[in-house]
Amino acid sequence: MRGSVGRRKVAIKPPADLHTEARSDSSAGRLLLRFDRVERAAHWMNALLFAILMATALPLYFAQMEALVGRRELIVQIHTWCGIALPVPLIISLAGPWGRRLRRDVRRFNVWMPEETRWLRGRGREPLPELDKFNPGQKLNALFIGGAIAVMLGTGAILKWFGLFPLDWRTGATFVHDLLAAAIFIVVFGHIAFAVTHPDALRSMFKGWVTESWAARHAPRWLQEENALVSAPDSTSPKDLN
Description:
By secondary structure, this protein is mostly helical. The protein has a single domain, classed as Transmembrane di-heme cytochromes, Chain C (Fumarate Reductase Cytochrome B subunit, Up-down Bundle). Helices cover 64% and strands 6% of the residues. The chain contains eleven helices and three strands. It has a three-stranded antiparallel sheet. Strand 1 and strand 2 form a beta hairpin. It starts with 19 loop residues before the first strand and ends in a 12-residue tail after the last helix.
């Protein structure tokens, strides 16, 4: 005899796309993964180390701050070892299969369209071209930071282990290290100011996602690339969901 309880129909939800989240916003469209966990972790570890280096550099360069803080030798040690550790998060993030998206983004920094170089030469007077994932300012910032890490590590090593190098090397390293440190302060504070005034872009570095409408306005070429990947799912990997 058949029971009185009928079967309930269960709706099966289709799997989320590998490059887009299964959520959507009625006003902004679907959400796109802009930075995965590896990229975000590398960025914030790099930011933390830069913050410590900048904070410890100030009392080393200004006698008034050194007198206020004290414990110069401890500050020197913290500054030195954070400087040595600075490239480590990036190296680890780039090294393995988990760094696929980060390696792809690093390659983007070296790709410049003629319209982008014209915009830079015109100091922003030319109309911006259809942008890829990063605008020219972001590309310049990334290239500067990457170069600064290498140069500061090299000159810092000369200053720390000065006995291994001739005097003219130490003099040149001191000049370059100090000058580049001042430039880093300016660039970092400019980067923070830019991020604060662009909350959607900043949110993507915390949560990873941007809306499709944001991408259409600020990175249309990247949006086209993402849409092409959506239409060819066999070329994606589940690891891109991180």
